[in-house]
Design a protein that fits this description.
The chain has 233 residues and is α/β, with parallel strands linked by helices. The chain has 2 domains: 157 residues, Rossmann fold; 67 residues, Orthogonal Bundle (Arc Repressor Mutant, subunit A). The protein is 43% helix and 12% strand. It has 10 helices and 6 strands. It has a 6-stranded mixed sheet with strand order 1-3-2-4-5-6, sandwiched between helices. Strand 4, helix 3 and strand 5 form a beta-alpha-beta unit. The longest helix is centred in the last third of the chain and has 15 residues. The chain is elongated. It starts with 11 loop residues before the first strand and ends with a helix.
């Protein structure tokens, strides 16, 4: 049985079977990735109570592929707290290898930035940790059925952000590795103006750092592509 899946990785946590479930959603096999073991256990409890089979639980995104070599996971659920830059790259590897596996993010942050960040890394659902007991099961069932699931008041921010021409110019220069001073000199503006544009644009993209912003901009699927570099010249 998948629910008795034995984990051997040092970062993985065994998820015992729950004989009390009615199996109504047993065809949905979920894999969990939470640095916060308490939150991960809370999510697992809710999913099992709905008859959803939790086949594995790991503490790092990098362990998802190693722990799921057989492709048992049909929906991946992970905490936003594991998505530092390294784990975001590991998640990208998981998404590419398991293109048919929808992702749900559990986030403590209910903001536009959180939604856009989730979408940028390939998630089709997001729930807030404060309401996870009520929302995780519908979200997992929904994304498993091919739907996108976001909080009602935040769902409108799941669309690709719209950048102004100036914002595209500056982001193109960020991709080229230019400093704020170099950008300011090129555009004949002050550094504070550049910083202001970066603050707004980073929020639109759902990123925190220049490297995350550059990756988001040139992403061939969700980004603006390398054509944006022509705007900056």
């Amino acid at each position: 049985m998948f629910s008795d899946y034995a984990m051997t990785d040092a970062h993985a946590r065994n998820v015992p079977a729950d004989d009390t479930t009615d199996g109504s959603h047993a065809q949905i096999r979920a894999g969990l990735c939470f640095a916060d073991e308490g939150l991960g256990a809370q999510v697992a409890t809710q999913l099992r109570s709905a008859g959803i089979d939790v086949v594995l639980s790991v503490g790092r995104v990098a362990d998802l592929l190693d722990s799921d070599r057989a492709g048992a996971v049909k929906v991946a659920v992970f905490g936003a707290d594991v998505l530092d830059e390294g784990d975001a790259a590991a998640l990208g590897s998981f998404v590419r290898a398991r293109q048919q596996v929808p992702l749900v993010v559990v986030s403590s942050e209910g903001s536009e930035r959180a939604v856009r960040r989730a979408v940028r890394i390939g998630a089709t659902g997001l729930v807030l940790s404060a309401t996870v007991d009520q929302t995780i099961v519908p979200a997992v069932i929904g994304v498993g059925a091919g739907l996108t699931c976001f909080p009602r008041d935040l769902g409108g921010h799941a669309a690709k952000p719209v950048l102004t021409t100036r914002e595209k110019q500056i982001m193109g220069m960020i991709v080229l590795g230019m400093s704020n001073q170099e950008i300011a000199t090129r555009l004949h503006v002050t550094q504070s103006t550049v910083k202001s544009h970066l603050f707004v644009t980073f929020s639109k993209l759902g990123v925190r750092t220049r490297s995350e912003a550059a990756a988001a901009i040139v992403d061939p699927v969700e980004g603006f592509g390398t054509g944006i570099l022509r705007i900056s010249t």
